[in-house]
Structure formats: C-alpha cells, structure tokens
Amino acid sequence: MIVPMKYGTADVIQGIPLIEAGTPDYKASPTLASGDVKISKDGGTLANLNTLPVVTPASSADVKIILSDVEIQCKQAVITFIDQTSPKEWEDNRIIIHTFGHADAQQAFDLSVDSGSEILAMQDTLDVLLRTILESTIMTATTVSSLASQISFTLVAGSSDDDAYNDCMIILKSVSTPARKAIGLISDYTGSSKTVSLVADPGVFTLAVGDEVFVMSVPKNIADIKKLLRADKIIDTAKTPWVVDYKEEGTSTKLLSKTMQNTAGANITTENNVLGQLEQE
Fold first, then answer.
1. How many domains does the chain have?
2. Which of 83, 101, 165, 190 is most buried, judging by how many CB atoms fall within 10 Å of its CB?
C-alpha cells in the first residue's frame, strides 16, 4: 500500500488491516507489541515508531497508525509490520509513504493546496508572461480603414514613418466572423497614407473595412524573447512622438523601438497624455 502524506506534518493512517496468520481473513483485535511495527526513512535503519499503533475501533480488524512530524521528514518512509511472537498471530505487512509539499519531499508540489487556486495562480503567471511578450512585440493594434485589394489596404491608426512595419508579421481578425483569423507578412508600409502591402494574400477570409489588425515585430528565436522579457524600457522624450526603446538588460544595445500611444490610440507627444500608456503597460 502506498500512502501520500505531506512532508514534515504529523498525520494518521486509519483502517490498516492485518491478515490472520495462515488464513485469508482479517485478524480481529490483533495484538501489537513494541518492536512489531518499525519505520525506515529513505532506506535508513529500521526504528520503532514513536507511537505504537492501536486497534481502532476496539475489537475491530482496523489498525490506526500515528506518525509524528519528524517521522515524515523524508522522501519515502517504509512502515513494516512483523509479529515478533511465535507462532505469528498475523501476517507481515508493509506500508510505503510518499511525501509531498516540500523541496526535500518525493514530490515538491503541494497536493494539500486547493488545486483550483494553483491553476488560477498558473493562469495569472501565464497571463502576465503573454502580456509582456505582446507589449514587447506589438507595433500597433488598429482596424482596416480602406481596401485597394486583399494585399493592399490602409490602417485607421499607425506609424507615420515609411517602412516602419516592413518585414513585420500581421494578424488579421474578421469582425463579422471573429473566429476567423489570418497571419501575413508585410512587404512594405507607407507612413503618410498608412498603407500596408502584404507579401501574399493569407486567403483565410475576405478582408473588409473595420476588420481588426495587429502588427507585430516577432523575435526570430526564444533567446530574443527572453531578452525582451528582461529588457530595460527607456522612454525617449526627445523624439516626436515619444518612443520607448527596449534595451538589453544592463546594456545600451537596442532590441526594439515602439512609438508610444495612449489608450485612445493617439501618439504621445507630451507629458499630458503619458498616463494612459503607463496604465496600459
């Protein structure tokens, strides 16, 4: 029998049966004496339990094992039942304990913590990680203003700099059918008209005015993503509009630059409209 128990926490195991010697039946009111029940922690020397197990309830075949916090300070504990009398009253038995909830336990994960809370905590961590990646890589989030074709269209909002989005990935989302999304690659961008030209038509759905657009500068590998996650964000107020530079942690190496925008999508050019962007960050 294997029983999970929390590392270093006193506990009780109820209802352990002992088989009557020479029979297939449980032994009612088994006699337990000092030396009959011993514990070995992580393969160590066998020792008597601090508390001799008792039959509970009285006259039943159920044995109650009481373990102290020290007895469960191990990865695995083996409890061995061997009747010292001759002839034996009951057959030998063994219980194996696997501990959890501590760095030195068999499993560090704490099974006694509400699993729902653990899952939510993991989701929160993933959400923060995803937001960080998106904030580090998204160039603009806007909608389609007009269409010349499925590979040439203008944006409602975007950089005024020519070629600002060249070679960037673009994610297109249908407003009429939100489940439909497409990914493309920008071959050219004209800042004055906010015109996007794609390398090819993604062909997933027919792009229409009002459809959502996300332009992203995607790192080429995981190492670059790690650098962006740790990057120092430096706001350059000397430029108009303001620009936030992502610089490799502790260095002056620039990884990415983004035009700062407030929550209304307008470029930030003065201190008066910084708050919206900082709240968004």
1. 3
2. 165
Task: Give how far Cα 7 sits from Cα of 1, 101, 118, 128, 275, Å.
Answer: 18, 6, 19, 31, 48
Is residue 75 assigned to a domain? Answer: yes
Q: Which domain holds residue 146?
A: 138-218
Contacts of 128 (CB under 8 A, 6+ apart): none
Angle, CA of 246, 163 and 250, to the nearest 5°: 15
Position 260 pLDDT exceeds 70 = no
116 located within any domain: no
Q: Is the pLDDT of residue 270 over 80?
A: no
On whether residue 111 sits in a domain, the answer given is no
- Range 209-221 average pLDDT: 80
Of the candidates 54, 84, 100, which is a domain's last residue? 100
Residue pair 101/111 in contact by the 8 Å Cβ criterion = yes
pTM of model > 0.70 = no
pLDDT in tens, 141-191: 899 999 999 999 999 999 899 998 988 888 899 999 888 888 888 889 999
Q: Beta 138-149 vs 93-100: how paired, if at all?
A: unpaired
First CA to last CA distance, the chain: 53
User: Per-residue pLDDT for 61 more than 80?
Assistant: yes
pLDDT at position 207? 94
Q: How far apart are the C-alpha atoms of 40 and 78, rounded to whole Å? A: 5
Whether 189 maps to a domain, the answer reads: yes
- pLDDT, residue 274, reads 42
Averaged pLDDT for residues 8-13: 94
Residues 183, 234 share a domain? no
The conformation of residue 229, written as its DSSP 8-state character, comes to H
Which residue's entry shows tokens 């961590």?
A: 125
Written in H, E and C, the secondary structure of 23-78 is CCCECCCCCCCCCCEEEEECCCCCEECCCCCEECCCCCCEEEEEECCHHHCCCEEE
